[in-house]
Amino acid sequence: LCLRQFRILHHDVTSLSVETIGPCLHHINDQVRVDALGLLCEHRKTTTAPTTEELQMILSFMKFNMNSQSPLFRQQVSTLFKKLLIRVRECSIALIKKSNHKDLQVFKDFLTGYFNTSFASLFPGSSYQRRQFALQCLTLQASLFDYHAGQSVDIGKWIANIFTCSSALTTTHIKQLLLCIQDSYVTNKVLASDLLTNLVSREVLVEYMYNLTALAHTMMGGAKAAECSSSAYYMRLFMNVDSGKLSSVIRELNLKWIDKLKHTEKLKSHSTHQVFSNNEISHELTVLAELINFLQIQLSLAQDNLLHASVESPVYGVLEVIRISLETIELSNVPDDFVAGWRELLGCLIKISTSVAKLVTPVVCNSSPEGCLPDLAINALKQINVADIDVLGWANSGANAQSLVVCCWHCLKEVSLLLGDIVERAPLVSVEPQSYGLITVEQVLNIGDLFTYHLMEAKHMGAFEMAYAGFHKLCGVLWASTSPLLKQKPQEWAQKLLDSFKMQDSEHRVTRRSAGVPYYLLAILSTEPDLTGRSCLKAVMNTLLHIACNDQPDSDSLQPSCVHALNILRALFRESRLGDHVMSYVAGGFKTALFGISSDVWAVRNSSTLLFSALMTRVFGVKRLSDEHCQENKMTSKQFFTKFPSLHSFLLKELNLATSPLEADRFDVLQPSLFPMLLLLSRLYPSTLDDGGDPNMSLQPFVNLVLRCAKSSVWKIREAASRALLMLLSQTELTKSINLLYSSGLGIRGARQNHTHGLFLMLYALLLEMFPTDWKTGLNTICLLLKISWIGKQINRCPVTRGTYLQILGTFFDQFHLFAPSQQFHHSVADKLELFCDSLELLTNTGHSTFLHTRLLVAGCCYCYLVLTCTNPSVCDQEVISAAASLLVCDHSHDNVIVCFVSTCLQHSVYEVKQCVLTEMKRKPLSNSNMLTLVPIFYDIGLSATNPELLTLVYELLIDYHKTDNISKDHILKLMQNILKMNHFPNMRMCLKEASINLASHILSSHVTDNSQMLLQWVELLKDSYGPSQPESLRRVVASALGRSWRILLQHSSHHNDDVVIGFWLLLIELLQDYDVDCRSEAARYMSHTMSDFQGHYESMHSQYCLEVVFTLVKQHHKENLYLYIKVILQYLETADVTNFTWGQNILFVEGPINDYKEEAIPVQLACNSLKSFINNPIGDLAALEDLKTFSRTVLTNTLSFIKHVEESSTMLPRSSHESSTMLPPRSSHESSIMLPHSSHESSMMLPRSSHIAGSVHKMLLVLDVLQLIDKCVTPVLLKLKVLITSL
């Protein structure tokens, strides 16, 4: 708050010392760090120069905050950086005018540090958010400090004398940006591409063209979608650099690709195919023509063997490259000389895309596309070498079916997006012969027919969703067309579909939610312009409502048109772009849905239910809270019936029909529409404004009809009716309604139990609503209920009504003492002691252990517990205490009755009784003295119980009461051992695991033990319970548990097994890199406590800063035992997969949880720095040096294995003989110092087509660089690895 106020008032930051603001820049709270940075970056005068210390603190802030997961934090920091850079630029220009070169050098050094720090975050293995933020920082700096961004010639000259990003770029920086194009996220690809285009000259980029084009050519022929996307951005980059040279490179690569395949002569005809006749063409056209030739090669392979092509050479990669390459070209502004060439190219592209769509149609249009293997594919499967399939990870027919459907729907996706872009961006050829245009009307109509077919027939959701995206663009173009033929086409398509629905023998089969049929009409109607008056929408809505209402089958015979109409209506009501236009049809939609829910056909009922749900969302809004019945999604009756006046009479009529059998005591007749009508009424409430007595707005006519629902034999109907009744009544009508319920036969002996239960539910809902404002009426109601106390006694054989009755009494007894005068309630309870005694007597009867009595036992137990724990002792007079004491044979004192009652319940044979009491004790604890008295019983249950819910409750209660003298230390340690043993059982419930770890950590923190074996088991338990596959709640418990036990594990580390200490530090490092911010914060918080033991003061630092100093902290803790310190480092390096490197497989999907925050390269670099410091100053620790040499030999063996594997696989990247040596430009001597702070090796950054292992190679190089200090054998291997990766 002080920082925020200081920043708002624009105080001068120089009044604060570095010791004051420095820790705030690394604080655990994001907002504190933002406010501290704001003090350094902001100033009222942009020409006020920041000091050297302030600039150094900002660079330190950058180093530790680039990996923030919060988009808000990154956006705030980016805004502050922009203000700072503008301020630095203005100050630098002022210094240039004054010729003050000394102070100007300070800003130059800062801008260089900012530039290098941003590039330092682009190391292999960095997280997505770090790369994105670094690229954003570079884009921001380039926009302000580059001569391209100068607002005038003079400013451009001044900026050139300060700092320019283009001149600061080195070969290493260019390689980093080129590698970022292989990022998994498109935003990072785009940012990197824009930086390369704006900062790097074409002459420099041409040097990389061949090898990266070869890499892109290889990737776009692969099966991984991320690699195909990367290849597309490589092609787009080099098309802007030198499209003429790019086309010749692609032509050469096409021929090399063919040489590796069979049927060479047939495929060569495609590679030499002339797309253009004799038209003049541009270089961009040549590039696209070569890509189309490669597409024809891929298509030819797929036509021969689709299954094999789905694994080896899928078509969708080339289609994506062509689509993204076309995005950079203004098709609406093509030079006249190249118009004919573009017409030919787009025509050829449309033709080939249509062929691709037809090829994959049998799979995506199959009734079960996920498991589809067409006959041709099955025959082809027999021809594929099984060994080849194993290498690719698809060893069985199911996996082959998966790869096939993925390939097919990706192909249709790219075809749809490509054709949609062409139609949207390419101008149409007019009727005049000399008119400008690239695509013809016939081509547009053919594309429309293609989209129509796949939307009507495709069953794969991804396929028809992408077809919808392309068809949506097409419809937008057609509606806006000036051609009458094209302008009326969407309406013709819609009418044709509706006409097919009216035919009895409709060709459209019923599928799940009608597949792509709703998307078809949705694309047509959502793009219809308002200028037409939405006539097409009105006609379609009226027709659909007519079909859905009138074509509903009366028997089990299914009419597909009705189901399709319902599903289309659902899609139209859900579409936000049609929200205001479809509101006038909501009333008809509700009527249609309610009629359909009563249908005899399941498909109609299902579609009608989905339509009803969509209408509820459209009218009342999206549910924003977990409570389905919250006030946020409700509406007054005046609002609702003003919008939809016809629904008032309709709902009255239908509700009367649905409840008439109940009124006539025909309980066997079920009305399916009753439940949704009650749901709808539960969203309406009376208006506070006077409605003028208009009967068409009033909710009062619905009250009596809802009261009938209390007789229903369906429990859900009774519950829905209770909620609806509550909403229908105003606050002034509650008392009258409660009296009406009581006089409706409540408590009459011989009444139907369903009716009694329904009345109790309604009464309970009304009392909960009325109690806070009108406790007197509530008290009178409770007194009336006590007059029919026989319902809560054993004479009533129905446990449901008995339990509900006792639940009402227990709930309100628990709260009445807060509002009601004690004397009134005192007499009400004292008059009916039989009910209380009867419940206690039932609890002592161990014979009632069946399921029917369990609910009653639990309700009675709750009631008795609430009576005894009433915070106002005068409520429970001496008669109540005496009655309870006589039953339990105990002292008459109030506290003893409570303890004896709880003890009796905890020893009951029915475990639900124990669970009920423990739950109530957790919600409403007893006094501290009573709880401590019961602790021994808790321990007994914890040692003997097997029910997981019971154990969870006991452990949660013991967390607050484990410190007691009533339990011996041996008993406590026995419970601890029981917990450690129990957590190794498989299939242990997560809630029990969390509670047991939580309790064990509290026991360890208060009962220090020197049992090394137990501590080792404890650390192993925490390690086993932590991992990316575990839920966040358990990982947070582990973080908290480690924080409570860290003093035991570290302060007495000399007495513990080394494995205990090593396990602690390794788990701490993992927690500091957890994906969940709460886990990281918890670990950082107690690590800050540990740091305070050495620094003398406590500052809560955030996790990234703590990770930076973790190995320094390890050394400080174990400075008397450096051997243990080295063992911690070596164990971490082994867990970081430095010694267990595996070559990544070419799998289709990555399975398992992924920690996108974790960056192993950073702690590996820190560990290597610590090793290097130790090697340079070994202090005679021979055992540690021997361990280092053993570790070195393991790493060497693994590295040599990796080198051998790379050499055997080096043919994966084709390259020409004359360019292989010039793939990477030479690195100048002055660039060697401008490398990543986290790495001294650039070679790991250019491992082609293996970005998934680039991080592992980077770590390997870091470790080898350190190990060569103690092992001379490492140096030649390290050099060989660098040369190998650089050559690739």
Low-confidence stretches: 384-399, 817-834, 842-853, 871-894, 1141-1146, 1211-1252
Total number of strands: 2
Sheet of most strands: 2 strands, parallel
User: How would you write the strand order of the largest sheet?
Assistant: 1-2
The outline comes out as globular
How much strand content do the residues show? under 5%
What is the end-to-end distance? 55 Å
Q: Please tally the helical runs, counting DSSP H or I stretches of 4 or more residues.
A: 60
Average pLDDT score: 78
Rg over CA atoms: 38 Å
Share of residues in helices: 55-70%
Oligomerization state: single chain
Structural class: mainly alpha
Structure description:
- The chain has 60 helices and two strands.
- It is an all-alpha fold.
- Strands 1-2 form a two-stranded parallel ribbon.
- Helix 6 runs antiparallel to helix 7 (128-144) and helix 41 packs parallel to helix 43.
Question: How would you concisely characterize the structure shown here?
Answer:
With 1288 residues, this protein is mainly α.
Keywords summarizing the entry:
mainly alpha, two-stranded parallel sheet, 0% strand
Draw up the topology in text.
Blueprint: H1 2-8, H2 18-25, H3 30-41, H4 52-65, H5 71-98, H6 101-120, H7 128-144, H8 153-162, H9 165-168, H10 171-180, H11 186-199, H12 202-220, H13 225-259, H14 264-271, H15 283-304, H16 306-312, H17 316-326, H18 339-364, H19 375-383, H20 386-392, H21 397-425, H22 441-457, H23 461-479, H24 484-487, H25 489-502, H26 517-526, H27 535-550, H28 560-574, H29 586-597, H30 602-620, E1 635-636, H31 637-643, H32 646-663, H33 674-681, E2 684-685, H34 700-708, H35 715-728, H36 734-742, H37 753-770, H38 775-786, H39 799-816, H40 822-830, H41 833-844, H42 851-868, H43 878-888, H44 894-906, H45 911-923, H46 928-944, H47 948-961, H48 969-982, H49 990-1006, H50 1012-1025, H51 1032-1051, H52 1058-1071, H53 1077-1095, H54 1103-1108, H55 1110-1117, H56 1122-1135, H57 1161-1176, H58 1182-1208, H59 1251-1267, H60 1274-1287
Parallel strand pairs: 1-2
Helix pairs in contact: 1-3, 2-3, 3-5, 4-6, 5-6, 5-7, 5-8, 6-7, 7-11, 10-11, 11-13, 12-13, 13-14, 13-15, 13-17, 14-15, 15-16, 15-17, 15-18, 16-21, 17-21, 18-21, 18-22, 21-23, 22-23, 23-26, 25-27, 26-28, 27-28, 28-30, 29-30, 32-34, 33-35, 34-35, 35-37, 36-37, 37-39, 38-39, 39-42, 41-42, ...
